[in-house]
Amino acid sequence: MGDADRVTAVEVAVFAPLPKRLTYRWPRHLGDPATAIRLLVPLGATQRLAVVERVLRLPASEADGYKMVLDRLDAAPLLPAGYRRWRERLADYYLALPGEGWEAVLAWAADEGRRRFRMVDGEQLAAAMPELAAVFKGSRRPLTQATIRSRLACHGSFWLLRQAEQRGWVEEVVEPLFQPDGMVSGSAPVTLNEAQQEAVERLTAARGGFRSHLLFGCTGSGKTEVYIRAAEQVIAGGGQVLILVPEIGLTPMWLARVARRLGRVGVWHSALKPRARHALRHRLARVDAVVGTRSALFLPLPRLGMVVVDEEHDASFKQQDGLCFSARDMAVLLAQQLAIPVVLGSATPSVESWHQAQRGRYALLTLPDRVGGGSRVATRIVDMRGERGVLSPPLLAALKQTKAAGKQSILYLNRRGYAPALHCTACGAVPTCRHCAARLTLHRRRGELRCHLCGWKRRASDRCDGCGEQALLPLGAGTERLGADLEAAIPGLRVARFDRDAVTTMAQQVALLQAFDRGEIDCLIGTQMVVKGHHFPGVTLIGVVQADLGLNLPDLRAAERWWQQLTQVIGRAGRGADAGLTLLQSYQPDHPWLRQLGDAFAPSVLRQELAMRREMAAPPFARWVRVVFSAQREARARKAAEALRDAADSLSGIEVSGPIPCAIERINRRYRFELLLKDAGRTRLPWALRPLLDRLPVPSGVRRKVDVDPMDMM
Q1: Which of 82, 334, 409, 687 has the fewest CB atoms lying closer than 10 Å?
Q2: Which whole-number Å values give the CA distances from 117 to 18, 39, 75, 294, in the listed order?
Q3: How far apart are CA 566 and CA 136, in angstroms?
Q4: Nearest of 196, 214, 231 to residue 363 by alpha carbon
Q5: What is the full DSSP assignment across 429-454?
């Protein structure tokens, strides 16, 4: 059969939960096909995005059975070769479905339809593409790509626009790079101490090759200045730097730190408006550094020379929906693929990273002392047994003294709302969510009970649903109640809340942090949002309202996370010239963990955790994969989990536990069952699971979530 008898087709990964790749015919008017470009393809009655993985030449008779590609979105691959190979390794490790791996990595290129274009050369456009020229002439303003497509009824409208753009007949309208108002000031270089200088020199020496570094520095030890100095060297050599932070709220602060130190800096996170995203996409080759959350990892920076992962221990670096990847671990893999250095920084390193450093896999850089006159923090435990109120007398007295001295305080309570639950004193009933196996949280100011898992809410009432008695009382305390009690106890104290209920936008967050930094707020009450990376020299008092909260959860990492969070909280005090004090209110004042809080205890705490993990054959000494099945019918979820369990029993060297109901067995009307697969040798998982997942279709109405190296067992 000659080439003339063959038809061009493409094998694609569709952005849909499909277990296999699909084949489509290739229309000639879309030019020559190429791998790693995005397409628009028909799927049933819908249209979906897809990525070309292979170009085929099929017999004409065979190709007749395939549908035709509708449109082409890219002239060339969006990812350079090194990033494409890294994406393959990522998708392979996390057992991604064909389209799932591409969709996660190319999420930065979403919102394609919101790109705006204007006509530049109307005569040339009208001569070559009269339909497209007519669309532009009908509007005085730039048009979005989606609008252009809805006015062009032909297949290939995206590709038509690309051709016009390449020829210079139309151009994209791009906004200036995103800059948060009021936060861009830039930090001046400071004199490095000996430990900082050594860390910078070792990072600089690592340029030109792959090396992982763990920068272990106590809170306030100047890790940020080390990052910036090393980044300056990379940029001076023509490279680019990616700085990953765990929370969106940290990006304005980081931008303020690196402004005018690292040249042209871009910001990337999920809350950016489309125009800001497009502005950075358009300038990826021209920026010197990008500060962003985990999704920024996928931006294909063409001259990437170093990756920084700040607060590397933070669980926010693990994606919990869709493709469950670890941005920290994949940053290391990307650095390996591109042969560049990566630095992971923390005052409270993760057990996994500490283990790698102890084995010599990561170079350990240590910053043992605070800089800039920062003082160590004294810690006292307050016995709450017998106390009725939320705030103990010692904490109230310390708050008054701090206010009188003209200093500031932070109160930490990792619970939102007024109270975590209501309790009927007549019959013992507790209002629960209609859709989840969870208690409803009281938000008194809004007059509602709300589920913090699915968002369902209802009006609050003081009458019990079960017995009808007016006997409902708040059970426990959240940040809203803490604020109300504090204002009543200390009149005149300027108090503000820093949680997701009180601060809902980036502008509000920036304004609140600026007010606190200027001394306009005496006491900041916050959840874990207040823990991460903030530097306030005026804070001398930290109050941890419920120091036991989260310590005894049924999760392998519960104690590790609890220690990290409280140690980070303690580290917010004493960053100026005045000494700091932390009061820990506890109902278990004799608990041994309370005696090991603070970054000075990090080596011993991490040694204990590693010894416990080794004895349990748990990560990092084993590899775990958690598979969760959910369905609106309990029996369906259980049956699907049992099917995988039966198949996985044949895998040698792998221990299979379950299926059992998840710790939270019902979320958003769906029953949940989990399997836990354990590989003590770390050689078979996750790859041995791939054939089973491919062979076992997910039943109708059932969802399957595969989590390699799970961080959250709830």
Answers
A1: 687
A2: 34, 20, 17, 29
A3: 58
A4: 214
A5: ---B-SSSSSBPEEETTTTEEE-TTT
Q: How many Cβ atoms from other residues are within 10 Å of residue 115's Cβ?
A: 23
Domains 194-367 and 377-418+477-611 share a fold: yes
CATH tag, 194-367: 3.40.50.300
Fold of 3-109: GIY-YIG endonuclease (3.40.1440)
Tokens matching residue 100: 């799932």
CB-based contact 554:350 (threshold 8 Å): no
Query: Please, what are the averages of pLDDT over each run of 10 residues along the chain (714 residues)?
Result: 77 93 94 93 93 92 88 91 96 95 90 83 88 83 84 78 89 70 54 91 89 92 92 94 91 83 89 84 91 95 96 94 95 97 95 96 92 74 89 94 93 92 89 93 92 92 86 89 92 92 84 89 89 79 90 84 90 78 92 85 92 94 96 96 94 92 94 96 93 91 95 85
> Nearest Cα to 73, choosing from 40, 116, 118?
40
Fold of 377-418+477-611: Rossmann fold (3.40.50)
Looking up tokens 């277990």 gives 19
Q: At residue 375, what is the residue type?
A: S
Tokens coding 136 = 């532009």
Domain ranges for the chain, please list them.
3-109, 112-172, 194-367, 377-418+477-611, 623-708
Please name the amino acid found at residue 96.
A
Task: Provide CATH code, domain 623-708.
Answer: 3.30.70.600
Query: 206: Cβ–Cβ under 8 A, 6 or more apart, which residues?
Result: 213, 341, 363
Q: Where on the phi/psi map is residue 576: left (φ > 0), alpha (ψ -120 to 50), or beta? A: beta
Treating both helix axes as pointing N-terminal to C-terminal, what angle do 506-517 and 251-258 enclose, rounded to 10 degrees?
A: 60
- Structure tokens of 473? 């009382």
